[in-house]
Write a structure and sequence with these properties.
Length: 301
């Protein structure tokens, strides 16, 4: 064809691997440089959370208060693209007081403070396209705090239920992280989170369910199949929650919600799955045995 050779003469074929015949793609080269700080941070977090769960009362409520206040700080920065103003700090304080109010005055006191935080967020909408996300964030964080504390309660069953919750969530996260990075493969949702794969999602489901079942048989005599179902439900819920946070971060063009936890990013990055799991597990327990007996409703069938 006339002029074809001249047109091809200046054509850049791209990187060398693009010129090879189609075949099996090379295995992904994974960067594990964040593994050491990730493991060390996880060890510290697990130890602190486990101790607070065991102690209960005002101790675990203080931990949850710090967690939701810090997570809301990151949420405010993410949706507003600037540090919080006084309205944001008011909401943070109200969310923290909700957790402390639960420990000191019961579920109703905690819900009252969450309601005030939601009300404050509604009056703080001054740029609708961004600040309208305040109220959903407050509802999620406040609801998760009440769910977690409602599960823990002040009984031994509460300790068992929250340990079961934490074990499933952390096993899910760990399985998805390690297997997903090592195996790679088809992307779970490349438009939302390019790093998540189907292999990681399946590994997370399997590891979360297996670890959940192990804890289940240690803390209750209820049927195995119920433990498997609840563990699988928690694992899937945790991954959906993590994917939802990734969608929000992508919408606001943010990679991590923060950088306070080495190897993990922000507080919200670390606890999003745990918060969703707490809401789901509390809902299961409350449906089965009532709000005041959520831990019993989870464990005794």
């Amino acid at each position: 064809m006339p002029g074809a050779s001249a047109g091809l003469a200046g054509w850049d074929p791209g990187p060398p691997f693009m010129n090879k015949a189609p075949g099996k793609p090379p295995p992904p080269q994974q960067n594990w440089s964040d593994l050491r700080p990730r493991v060390l941070s996880a060890a510290v977090l697990i130890s602190v959370v486990a101790l607070c769960i065991f102690l209960g009362g005002i101790v675990v409520a203080t931990l949850v208060a710090l967690m939701v206040a810090g997570a809301y700080f990151e949420w405010e920065v993410m949706i507003c693209a600037e540090p919080p103003k006084w309205r944001g700090y008011v909401i943070m304080v109200l969310l923290a007081l909700a957790s402390l109010g639960y420990a000191l005055g019961g579920f109703e006191a905690g819900l009252l403070m969450v309601g005030l935080a939601v009300l404050a967020s509604l009056f703080a909408v001054d740029r609708w396209h961004r600040y309208a996300y305040r109220a959903p964030g407050v509802l999620f964080l406040g609801g998760a705090a009440m769910a977690f504390l409602g599960l823990r309660g002040d009984t031994l069953n509460g300790v068992y239920a929250t340990v079961f919750l934490a074990a499933v969530i952390w096993a899910t996260d760990s399985g998805a992280y390690f297997i997903g990075r090592q195996v790679g493969g088809a992307k779970l949702s490349p438009g939302i989170s390019p790093s998540k794969t189907w292999s990681g999602a399946i590994a997370g489901l399997v590891s979360g369910t297996v670890v959940g079942l192990i804890v289940w048989v240690m803390v209750t005599d209820s049927p195995y199949w119920i433990g498997i179902m609840i563990s699988a439900l928690l694992s899937v819920s945790a991954q959906v929650g993590d994917l939802a946070e990734s969608a929000v971060k992508r919408w606001f063009t943010v990679k991590d919600s923060g950088d306070i936890i080495p190897g993990h990013g922000g507080i919200l990055d670390r606890v999003d799955s745990l918060m969703v799991g707490a809401i789901v597990l509390f809902a299961v327990g409350a449906w089965h045995a009532g709000i005041d007996q959520a831990a019993v409703g989870v464990l005794i069938w």
